[in-house]
Amino acid sequence: MCLAVPAQVLSISDPSRALALADSGGVQREIELSCVIADGPPETLIGAWVLVHVGVALAQISEQEALASLALWAELDDGDGA
Hints:
Layout: E1 5-14, E2 19-24, E3 27-32, E4 49-53, E5 56-61, H1 63-76
Antiparallel strand pairs: 1-2, 1-4, 2-3, 4-5
C-alpha cells in the first residue's frame, strides 16, 4: 500500500529541475513537480494543492479535498504518540 499526503506548493526552489517547497500540515519539504506540470512553467503551481508520495507530487487536488484529508490526519493523531 502507498500513502500520499496533501501539500500546498509554496515556492519554486529550482525551476530547471521542477523542485518546489511545499507545506503539509505545517511541515515544509522540497518536492518534485514533473508529474503534475502540464504545459507551462512550474511557477503556475504556486498555491496549488498536490498529493505527495516519497517527495514526488503525483496529482493536483482541490483545496477542499486537501483540507478534508488534513483534517482526517489531525483526527487520527490523538497526541499519545501511538
